[in-house]
TrEMBL record:
Gene3D superfamilies: Aspartate Aminotransferase, domain 1, Type I PLP-dependent aspartate aminotransferase-like (Major domain). Its EC number is 3.7.1.3. It catalyses: L-kynurenine + H2O = anthranilate + L-alanine + H(+); 3-hydroxy-L-kynurenine + H2O = 3-hydroxyanthranilate + L-alanine + H(+). Pathway: Amino-acid degradation; L-kynurenine degradation; L-alanine and anthranilate from L-kynurenine: step 1/1; Cofactor biosynthesis; NAD(+) biosynthesis; quinolinate from L-kynurenine: step 2/3. It is an enzyme of class 3 (hydrolase). It comes from the Bacteria. Catalyzes the cleavage of L-kynurenine (L-Kyn) and L-3-hydroxykynurenine (L-3OHKyn) into anthranilic acid (AA) and 3-hydroxyanthranilic acid (3-OHAA), respectively. Belongs to the kynureninase family. The gene is kynU. Its cofactor is pyridoxal 5'-phosphate. The lineage of its organism: Bacteria, Pseudomonadati, Pseudomonadota, Alphaproteobacteria, Hyphomicrobiales. This is Kynureninase. Keywords: Hydrolase, Pyridine nucleotide biosynthesis, Pyridoxal phosphate.
Length: 410
């Protein structure tokens, strides 16, 4: 006997994190499984942003940089995210985007290893990462070396300045052993930059315990900070004094309001800043973090893992014989909080699912990706999503959906 919808309703009743769903605005009729692309809206965020617009901006005007704490916001919010990264607070700040911070970190890392000529990076990583690696290599006269995540430790040698890879892969959700990979890279005298896009707010890890050098993570995915929310950047304490990032804008200056001609790097993590913070999205991110109050990353990861295990079990029962494939580790301890199911017509099937209110995303060429914002996704949502895919495959109702246009967000 396969699992029934009632079995999943029972799992929701027993779920110790079920209370957290109330912390989010989930529209009626929507089954939201795309928190790994854009997290759902936490309650309280729109009030907070309205306050920032109407009171802090509208009334406080320029005074709010001091009086409303805008100037201190990047470090304050970084310190609040730090426990989710297993990091001491003074090593984290919030600024700009993942790609921009990767650029800063890769150049900074290469400057700390000036006589080494290679950057080793992950084949199959999110393309933006490798586009940045290529550009940094062109700029600095280094050679990029691409190998799969599992081969990184062996590919790093004594001519490698830095290795860059994702902790959780954006397609397969495979988790790397952060401590072991970092140790192997350090054994060759190289540095490591971790991409935490699919890790922060999804799985438990500790940058400090793993002795990571640098990391960057996402504000708009599992932290639910809103579209384009700023990313967070981590520099290990031991590098803070020496780190020399290339985007030397005035917000990373030791005294921006002295308006000196010469650049003098700010002390500590503030030197990772470049420009005026985008305060509206920064404020939204800060308010969104309330959704994690009183919840441990261990509980979040355990729930996400249980949701993924359920989806894989239902995939075996209902989809494996219908032309689908599984592109996810069956070992929950090696899997982050999303599951990828492949089908040659995955784009059309996902569009037809979205038309039914079941929202995941599509990653070319054939991946239907379902992400589990563990604070709000229910077990019954997983059942309904798999049932939806099964119905579509059996009815062929996806066949009327046209293929994607080149510039569609999928
Ligand atoms: C693993 C990974 N790295 C990098 C990025 C790029 O992020 P950003 O648009 O903030 O540069 C993404 C975006 O989804 C991602 O998933």
């Amino acid at each position: 006997m396969g699992l029934s919808r009632e079995d999943c309703v029972r799992l929701d009743r027993e779920d110790p994190l079920a209370f957290a769903r109330e912390r989010f605005v989930i529209p009626a009729g929507v089954n939201y499984l795309d928190g790994n692309s854009l997290g759902a809206l936490p309650r309280g965020v729109s009030e907070r942003v309205r306050h920032v617009v109407d009171e802090e901006w509208g009334v406080g005007l320029i005074r709010s940089w001091n009086q409303a704490g805008w100037y201190a916001a990047p470090g304050r919010i970084g310190a609040r995210i730090a426990p989710l990264l297993g990091a001491a607070p003074h090593q984290v700040t919030v600024t700009e985007t993942i790609s921009i911070n990767l650029f800063k970190l890769l150049v900074a890392a290469a400057r700390l290893r000036p006589n080494r000529r290679k950057i080793v990076a992950e084949l199959g990583n999110f393309p933006s990462d490798n586009h940045i690696v290529d550009s940094v290599c062109r700029m600095l006269g280094l050679t990029p070396v691409y190998v799969t995540a599992g081969e990184i430790a062996d590919a790093v040698d004594d001519d490698t300045a830095v290795a860059e890879l994702s902790h959780v892969n954006y397609r397969t959700a495979e988790i790397q052993d952060m401590a072991a990979v970092t140790a192997a890279i350090h054994a060759k005298g190289a540095l490591v930059v971790w991409d935490l896009a699919h890790s922060t707010g999804a799985v438990e890890f500790s940058l400090d315990d793993a002795r990571a050098d640098f990391a960057v993570g996402c504000g708009y995915k599992f932290l639910n900070g809103g579209p384009g929310a700023p990313s967070h950047v981590y520099v290990a304490e031991r590098h803070l004094a020496a780190v020399d990032q290339p985007l030397t804008g005035w917000f990373g200056h030791a005294a921006p309001f002295a308006f000196a001609h010469e650049f003098a790097r700010a002390e500590g993590i503030r030197s990772m800043l470049c420009s005026t913070p985008q305060m509206l999205s920064t404020a939204a991110l800060e308010a969104a973090l309330d959704a994690f109050d009183g919840v441990s990353m261990r509980e979040v990861q355990a729930k996400g893992r249980a949701l993924g295990d359920l989806m894989i079990r239902l995939y075996d029962e209902r989809l494996a014989d219908l032309g689908c494939g599984l592109s996810a580790s069956r070992d929950g301890s090696r899997r982050g909080n999303h599951v990828s199911i492949t089908h040659p017509n995955g784009f059309q099937i996902m569009q037809a699912l979205i038309a039914r209110g079941i929202i995941g995303d599509f990653r070319a060429p054939d991946v239907m990706r379902f992400g589990f914002g563990a604070l709000y996704v229910r077990f019954v949502d997983i059942f309904d999503a798999v049932q939806g895919v099964e119905d579509l495959l059996r009815s062929g109702e996806w066949r009327d959906v046209p293929p994607p246009n080149a510039n569609d967000v999928t």
